[in-house]
Amino acid sequence: MIKILIILRRTAINTIDICKSLFKIMIPVSIIMKILTELGLISYIGDFLSPVMSLLGLPGAYGIAWAAALCTNVYAAIIAIISIFPDAPITKAQMTVFAIIILSAHSVPIECGIAAKTGIKLSIAIIFKISMGIIAGIVFNFIFSFFDLYNTPPHILLAAASPPATSLLDWVLGELRVYLTIIVIIFFLNLIIRILERSGILIFLIKILKPFLKFIGIGRDAIPITIIGVILGFAYAGGFFLKESKTGKINKKEFFYTVNFVTTCHAVIEDNMLMISVGGAGFPIMIGRAVYTYIMCMIFFFVTRNMSEEKFLKIFYRQKSRAQK
Cβ neighbours of residue 288 under 8 Å, at least 6 residues apart? Predict the structure, then answer.
């Protein structure tokens, strides 16, 4: 009983440390994004993205939906899609392409902000994330067009979704629920990791995944964080990334490869199902997105793996940052 209490106490302390670092980034960014949204500035970003949408085989009107995803989250993009679709209908192929673009690049201020807090250059994090989304759109648009796939109207299951909260109080309460959920989930993640370590299951999982992840530069020590991020989302893995950047247990190059993979491919259950619910095709979203991310990260790893650590840090990390001291 005493051992259990000690484990719970250590887990609680660790959870508080992780959440403190995480919320220092999330809360200010959320407030800024709320202000920008209320001022209608997100729509200007959408107008800027309209030509990019055309390049990816999508109507320019969907630029506002991607802007919503980039600045906030997948849920905001879904609300935008539902409102845009009646006036600018698209095929299931186009909806799938758009879904993969959003899944590859969303929540830029928070996710790239977390990456920057670990020592990675903010500009690099943003460029990598957005370019992964654009390239994904080009690749999947070509595949679907070449093989004439999913050339039917999408079936949007969330057409009757409730509108977003309109009052400031509703927004604050919603944000508080999100933060409380994160605290609870991170606590249990910490507890599960400790249990998996003691039971030997974690070692078993590492042995299974290590041969696959080594081709994208992710080593043994980074596998637990990778699993958390891929399954649950970057918000949860981000707290562990912030903690890990301070310990320095994971090599800087390996850390960078891990962050980039998880920022592009995370929450593969929740986010994927959300995009399927607005008419995206299941197989390309569930499997194609993961395969695409793996291949892109593998190419990046093989191009940079022989680069000296000094040169790598100079290009991809902020110099003399706290995370590197």
Answer: 100, 140
Contacts of residue 258, defined as CB under 8 A and 6 or more positions apart, other chains included, come to 217, 218, 222, 225, 226, 241, 250
Number of domains in the chain: 1
Asked whether the predicted pLDDT for residue 145 surpasses 60, the reply is yes
Range of the domain at 133: 2-158+165-324
Structure tokens, 112: 């790239």
Task: Convert the pLDDT of each residue in 146-179 to its tens digit.
Answer: 999 999 999 888 654 444 556 788 888 888 988 9
Of the candidates 125, 59, 46, which has an alpha carbon nearest to the alpha carbon of residue 321?
A: 125
Sign (positive/negative) of CA torsion 186, 192, 196, 197?
A: positive
H or E stretch at 307:
none
Using one digit for the tens of pLDDT, what is the confidence trace for 17-28?
889 888 898 899
pTM: 0.88
Tokens 């499997």 locate to 287
As given in the structure block, the two tokens for residue 28 are: 């200010």
Positive or negative, the CA dihedral 121, 233, 193, 209 is negative
Exposure pattern of 201-230 as b/e (b: 16+ CB <10 Å)?
Answer: ebeeebeebeeebeebbbbebbbbbbbbbb
